[in-house]
Specification:
This protein is of the alpha/beta class. The protein has 20 helices and 28 strands. The N terminus is likely disordered.
C-alpha cells in the first residue's frame, strides 16, 4: 500500500513531477520495464525533496540487477554490481572521515571508477569535484585549496603531479587514494571499498557536484550544483524530447570530468541503458566501437564531429553505423555546414544542444531544426525561461543580439567561495555565462559568440561566430576562428585564423573576394593567418586569448 499512497500524494501535490516522470517513462519504454521493487525505489525518489544522484543506481540494482550498466575495455559491470560498489565505497569514505558537504577531488582518465566515486560521494552527502587528468601542479593546487578537499582520488600514473602538490600543500598522505595500480605507501582504491557498517546520512540536500569551469580566461570557478527535485524533473523532461530509450547503448568519448560526457552518461543510466566508455576519441576507433557494440547514441563536441567527418563519407560508410539514433552535439558552436555534412554522412540523427555547467541544458535543436535553420541551437526546453538583454538590461527584439540569461530548475547555487562572481552573473533570478544570442520568430535561438569575444570595429558590433561560419563554407577551409586585435584607426580590426582542409592550399586573395560576397564590409576580416591547427582547451573550446596575441 505504501507505493500506492506515495503515488497518490505525488499526483495530488506534485503534478509536474509526476507528469514528467510518466511522459519520459512512456516515450523511453521504462514504464514497461519497472518491476514492483524498481517502482518502489522510483516512487521514493520522486517524492523526496532532493534527489541524490546515486538513487538511480539503487533503483536499477533492484529493478534490473543483471543488466549491463558499464562496458570499459574488456570489463563490464551489471547494475547490481555497480550499485554494490557505490554503496561499499560510500561506507568506506564515511569510515575514513568524510563528512557532510566535504569535498572529494578526483583526477583520472575515462574509466568506471569515475562513476563509482561521483555517486559514492553523493551517497555520503559530500561534494564530488572532478578535474582534468591533464591538470598541471599549479591547476591542481588551486582546486585543492579552493574546494577545501578532504580526499584526493587519482589514477596511479598521475602520481608525480599529485605527489608534488601534496608535498607543497602538506596534504595528509592517508587521504590520497590510488586508482588502477600501486603507489608506495598510498591506499589502493579497492581497499576503500568496505562491507563494514557505516552510517550513511539520508541528507540528500547536502550532496553536490562541484565543477570547475574550463577557465578560458583567468582562474577557473567552482560551480556548485545540488539536486533539488527540479533537477530530476528537468532531466526527465529533456529525455522526453529525445529518442532516448531503455535499450540504449551509449558511447562515452568526451572526458568524463566534463559535464557533456557525464550528463549524457547519466541520462542513459536514468533509463537503465548500457554505457560503453572509450578511453579517448579517435575517429576510426569511434566508428569501430559504434559497429562492435551497436551503439544507439553518443555525445560529441563539434571538434570531434569535424575530425569524424574529415575521414570522408567512403571511410564512414565502411562501418555499420545505422544503429545510431542520436548524436548529441554541444560545448561550442556547431556551424550549419558541419551539421549538414554530418547528417549527410550519418543520417538525420544529429541533435544540437545549448547549456553550460552553471545552467544545465537550456535548448535543443532536432535534425529537422538543423536542416531548416542551419546553425540553430534550437528552442527552449520545457521550463527554461530565456531572456536576451542589451547592455542597459532591456529585452531585445527578435533578430537582435543580446546577452542570454536563463531561469530554470537546474541553475547552480553559485560559485564556491566567490560571491562576487556569482552576483555578476545574475540578472535578478536569471543566470548568464556571457553568451550572446538572437532568436527568430519561430522561437529558434542562435549563439552569436561570447560577450567578451565581441569585436567593435569602427563603432560596429561584429560577432565572431557569424564570420567563422561564413569562412568555413569556403570549400578549401576546414575550420576558422575570428578575434579582434587592437587598431589605431578602427579601435579593433577583424582577424581570422584559418585551417585548410588536409592536402588543400588556400589562396588568400580568393578567400578575401569570397568573404566580401558573404558578409557586410565591416565584418570582412582585414587580416588572415593560415595555421595548421587552432589552440584548444581539454574540452575542445578554442583559446581565443592565445590567438589574440599572435
Amino acid at each position: 500500500m505504501q507505493p500506492i499512497r506515495s503515488l497518490w500524494e505525488s499526483l495530488a501535490f506534485a503534478p509536474r513531477r509526476v507528469r514528467a516522470a510518466l511522459r519520459a517513462s512512456n516515450t523511453s519504454g521504462l514504464v514497461w520495464e519497472l518491476t514492483a521493487a524498481g517502482l518502489g525505489e522510483s516512487l521514493r525518489a520522486l517524492t523526496a525533496s532532493h534527489q541524490n544522484p546515486s538513487a538511480i543506481y539503487r533503483i536499477h540494482a533492484r529493478n534490473t540487477p543483471h543488466k549491463t550498466a558499464l562496458i570499459w575495455r574488456e570489463r563490464s559491470l551489471s547494475y547490481g554490481e555497480l550499485g554494490r560498489r557505490i554503496e561499499a565505497l560510500a561506507r568506506g569514505l564515511v569510515r575514513r572521515g568524510l563528512g557532510r558537504r566535504q569535498s572529494v577531488v578526483s583526477l583520472m582518465r575515462n574509466r568506471p571508477e569515475h562513476i563509482e566515486l561521483q555517486n559514492a560521494v553523493a551517497r555520503a552527502s559530500g561534494g564530488a569535484v572532478a578535474v582534468s587528468w591533464r591538470s598541471t601542479p599549479a591547476e591542481l593546487s588551486f582546486v585543492l585549496k579552493n574546494s577545501e578537499a578532504r580526499f584526493v582520488f587519482f589514477e596511479h600514473e598521475l602520481w608525480p603531479t599529485v605527489d608534488q602538490v601534496a608535498r607543497e600543500l602538506d596534504f595528509p598522505r592517508d587521504r590520497l587514494i590510488a586508482i588502477g595500480g600501486e603507489v608506495p605507501s598510498v591506499t589502493r582504491y579497492e581497499d576503500v571499498l568496505t562491507d563494514a557498517p557505516a552510517t550513511l546520512a539520508e541528507d540528500e540536500e547536502s550532496a553536490a557536484v562541484v565543477t570547475y569551469t574550463s577557465g578560458t580566461t583567468g582562474k577557473p570557478k567552482g560551480a556548485v550544483r545540488r539536486f533539488p527535485r527540479e533537477v530530476f524533473v528537468s532531466t526527465l523532461e529533456f529525455i522526453a524530447q529525445t529518442p532516448m530509450r531503455t535499450d540504449d547503448v551509449h558511447l562515452t568519448v568526451c572526458p568524463l570530468y566534463h559535464m557533456t560526457a557525464y550528463g549524457f552518461l547519466t541520462f542513459t543510466h536514468v533509463l537503465g541503458g548500457t554505457v560503453v566508455i572509450a578511453d579517448e576519441f579517435k575517429p576510426e576507433t569511434f566508428l569501430s566501437l559504434v559497429e562492435r557494440h551497436r551503439v544507439t547514441s553518443t555525445a560529441l563536441v563539434p571538434t570531434m564531429l569535424h575530425r569524424l567527418i574529415a575521414l570522408g563519407e567512403p571511410e564512414i560508410a565502411r562501418h555499420r553505423t545505422r544503429s545510431l539514433r542520436a548524436i548529441y552535439c554541444g560545448g561550442s558552436a556547431l556551424t550549419g555546414q558541419l551539421a549538414t555534412r554530418a547528417m549527410d554522412a550519418l543520417g538525420d540523427v544529429l541533435y544540437n544542444f545549448y547549456g553550460a555547467t552553471e545552467t544545465g541544458l537550456v535548448t535543443l535543436a532536432t535534425p529537422a531544426d538543423l536542416r531548416a535553420a542551419p546553425g540553430t541551437i534550437g528552442r527552449a526546453l520545457p521550463h527554461n525561461e530565456i531572456v536576451l538583454v542589451d547592455d542597459s538590461g532591456q529585452t531585445v527584439r527578435p533578430g537582435e543580439v543580446g546577452e542570454l540569461y536563463v531561469k530554470n530548475g537546474q541553475l547552480v547555487v553559485g560559485y564556491h567561495g566567490d560571491e562576487a562572481a556569482t552576483r555578476s552573473s545574475m540578472l535578478g533570478d536569471r543566470f548568464s555565462v556571457g553568451d550572446l544570442a538572437r532568436v527568430d520568430r519561430q522561437g529558434r535561438y542562435f549563439i552569436e559568440g561570447r560577450k567578451r569575444d565581441m569585436i567593435i570595429t569602427g563603432g560596429v558590433n561584429v560577432y565572431p561566430t557569424e564570420i567563422e561560419a561564413a569562412i568555413e563554407e569556403h570549400p578549401s577551409v576546414f575550420e576558422a576562428a575570428v578575434v579582434g586585435v587592437a587598431d589605431a584607426e578602427w579601435g579593433e580590426r577583424v582577424k581570422a585564423f584559418v585551417v585548410a582542409k588536409p592536402g588543400v592550399s588556400i589562396d588568400e586573395a580568393d578567400l578575401k573576394t569570397y568573404m566580401r560576397g558573404k558578409v557586410a564590409s565591416p565584418k570582412v576580416p582585414r587580416e588572415y593567418a593560415f595555421v595548421s591547427s587552432l589552440p584548444r582547451n581539454a574540452t575542445g573550446k578554442v583559446l581565443k586569448r592565445e590567438l589574440a596575441v599572435l
